[in-house]
Amino acid sequence: MDPNPITDLDKFVNRLRVQYRTLSLEFRVTDVSVIAGSYYIFVVIYCKYYLISAFYLQGALMLPKAFVDAFGSQLGDFATFIDPNNNQFDVMVERICGVVFLTTGFNAIRDFYNVRLGGTIVMVFTGNGQFGINILDRAGRVVNPPFFIPPMKFEIQKTIVPAFVYQGVPVTTEILSFHHDDMNFQISWEKLLTGYDVSSGFLV
Amino acid sequence: MLIYKGLCDVTIGKKTTSLILLDDCGNMWNCITIFGSRPHHHIKLGGGWKRMVDARRLEEGVLVKVGFRHAGKNDTIYIEVKRPSVV
Predict the structure, then answer these.
(1) Most buried residue, A46, A105, A113, A167, by CB count within 10 Å?
(2) Is A112 within 8 Å of A84 (Cβ atoms)?
(3) Is A178–B26 a contact, with Cβ atoms under 8 angstroms apart?
(4) For A87-122, what is each residue's pLDDT tens digit?
C-alpha cells in the first residue's frame, strides 16, 4: 500500500484496501487463570487494514503473525505508542524465532491508564514504528488519557540487551517483560511514601 | 528519607547532582539530587521523581524499594513499587 498517495486513483485504491483487507484473530487465553493476582487486557490492533485482537499478560505482548507478515519489516528495534493527548511510550521490539514481541516499556500502560482486567488497547499502526493507541475499559468505553504539560514521555534504556537466552518461543510472555536484576538492589532499603513525597515533588 | 550516613555516602556522595531513576517497568526518569544538612544530612530526589509519581499514580502509603547497584559512584537509582496485587 502506498503510504503517501498523491493521485486520486491512489487514494481510492488505498481506501478500498483499508475497507476490505480487515481480519480478526484471537489468541488462546488458557494460561491466564493460573497466575493469581496477575492482570491482563485484551489488545486490538487496527492497522491500516488489519483488525487483530491479541492477548496481553504481564507487560509483554506477542504481535500476531498476520500483522508481522505484513508490517514486520517496518518495525525497528523500538516502537513508539502515542495516545490522543500526545503521551508517548517507548517499547522494545524483540524477535525470537520469527515471532515478534513488544516487551520492555509495555508494562507502563497499566499504571498510567489504570487499566484492569478485561481492558482493551486499540493500536493503530501508522508506519515508522509508531502506533496510535486508545484504551478501553471492560465495558468498552474509552478511558480518558491523562493530560500533562508537557506530554508524558516514557523512555526506556535503549542500550540494554536482554541477558536471557531463549530456547524456542517462550510459552508465556511473562518472562519477557521487564524485571529488575537482583544486582540492582545490592544496597537497598524500603520506604513507605508519605504525603509529602507524593505532593512536593521530592523524595525526602 | 535518603539518609546520607551509611547509604548515600557510599553510593552517590555529596557532589552528585543528577541521577537516572529506573523503575520496575523499565522506564527511566532524569532526576536531580539535592544535598541537605538540616535537621541531619540527607539527600532529596527531585525532577523526574514528580513525573514518575504522577505517571505511575503513586499515592501515600505505597511501599517503594530503593536500591543501588554497587558501592561507589552510581549514576542510576533503581526503584521497585510494591503494591498489593490488584486484578
Answers:
(1) A105
(2) no
(3) yes
(4) 999 998 888 888 888 888 888 887 888 776 666 777
Summarised one tens digit per residue, pLDDT across range A151-194 is 999 999 888 766 556 677 776 666 777 778 888 888 888 888 88
Contact criterion met (CB < 8 Å) for A180 and B58: no
Return the amino acid letter for B6: G
Quote ipTM for the complex: 0.81
Answer whether residue B87 is part of any domain: no
CATH of the domain at B21: 2.40.330.10
Stated pTM of the model: 0.75
Please list every residue in chain B whose beta carbon sits closer than 8 Å to the beta carbon of residue A203: 2, 44-46, 49
How far, in Å, CA of B29 to CA of B25, rounded? 11
CB A25 within 8 A of CB A45: no
Residue A5 inside a domain? The answer is: no
What is the total count of domains within chain A?
A: 1
